[in-house]
Design a protein that fits this description.
2 copies of one chain form a homodimer. The first copy, chain A, has 8 helices and 15 strands. Chain A has 268 residues and is α/β, with parallel strands linked by helices. The A-B interface holds A 50-55, 58-59, 76, 97, 101, 118, 157-158, 160, 162, 164, 192-193, 195-196, 199-200, 203, 206-216, 218-224 and B 50-55, 58-59, 76, 97, 101, 118, 157-158, 160, 162, 164, 192-193, 195-196, 199-200, 203, 206-216, 218-224.
Chain lengths: 268, 268
Amino acid sequence: MDALTLGPEGTYSHRAASAVADSVSFAESMTAIVDAVASGRHTRGVVPIENSIEGSVTESLDALAAGQVAVLEEVIVPIRHALIAQSEAFESVESHSQALGQSREYLDRHYPDVDRDPVASTARSVERAREDASIAAIAHPDNATDALQVLDTDIQDRDSNVTRFFVIGPSDDRRDAGSKSTFVVDPGVDHPGLLLELLEPFADRDINLTRLESRPSGRELGDYVFHVDVEAGLNEDRTRDALAEIEALASDGWVRHLGSYDTRRLDE
Amino acid sequence: MDALTLGPEGTYSHRAASAVADSVSFAESMTAIVDAVASGRHTRGVVPIENSIEGSVTESLDALAAGQVAVLEEVIVPIRHALIAQSEAFESVESHSQALGQSREYLDRHYPDVDRDPVASTARSVERAREDASIAAIAHPDNATDALQVLDTDIQDRDSNVTRFFVIGPSDDRRDAGSKSTFVVDPGVDHPGLLLELLEPFADRDINLTRLESRPSGRELGDYVFHVDVEAGLNEDRTRDALAEIEALASDGWVRHLGSYDTRRLDE
């Protein structure tokens, strides 16, 4: 099966997608990937959701909240950033803004006076470094082919740097069995204690909440849509009971079960 | 008093800072602003925290969690984006990534084939449009001086587009009185139901939680620092009691009261 992910070749998204699909195609944004799967133009997509240093990939969360897709699996990919250029004589460092952020301490220490410019992907920065000797890229060391050299490895600020990806498919493929489930909740109302009320149905049933992310609803400041990850499948009674309670609380809004799924961890 | 904020002249940060300070100086990043105030090089700073469409400004949150500063006031600024260029004959649109994101629907509809390139600030995009006829900027219409024209106004995707800023000062200026308070909590531990336990002390005392944002602790995936805003001042008994309970829960981590403060809303 083919999976659509963030290109070009050599991105961490490409590494994640290669682990779950026979072949990989590339799109230019998370929104484009979710749209292609929601509309049926592609059967599988792989989108980054969260990095252990930089936090949520908000474009992915917003696209998942808007799109009619299911989460089928999560993939945890270790991030190993290398500094890649034709030689040490570079004048600027380019990479995806998250990779620049993840290497901030390294760059501050070793290259405090070098300009940092965000580009669309880590792989795009490698292309730019290949074309232009004045540019260094930050990307996985496997990208240092042809005239490019790896100037330094493991330049990310912390060893525990991993990115979490979702494998997505059409809503019809949604599963109820899995060690984790993801819900998106738009309460449609706001009152004191609301957030607590939304979490209690899980806590009351000893369901571990592994992540809660608020995203703006777009209606007004202070009005949020919540992305909730729990360690339980929707095929368990306790999860269905909790969901029913949350649906009652959000009766003026909506609750979407994006899917129940298992985790795959890639080696370095 | 002089306030340091994100430059150059003409940014929305500049508009916010002008409302609270006699004069304004400019820095290049939120981290630089917080560092300058924490180290005493500047007595006041103004940093964007949250936009009603694009969500949190994560660099500001992370800098506040790391820095020794106090939040003295919040300022709500309406965002009115205009498309600004020398003429209609532009080939690319540049602006701060949040402004590009906030105008996505407009650009998709009217300029689907025009490249969009993120730059450091809305004001920087105006400088670029002034230098180069092939570039259009997205910024407040007041920036369209000299050869620049306002091609379209109110291009933001929603009318309710506002950005929330914090006015920051040295920790010694921290106040306990105000209609709102902000805390940063690193629990230092993780167990099922932890997040609920951190919210209950407020809910039990009818203190309205207006915002909860998780940011990665950097230690490992799934381990978070929480930014919590509540509608109560620390000079109230109920707030101090709630804080004491949260400090007990986070005894392996830390809790920081960034300050209690009031809200100022700017007109359009």
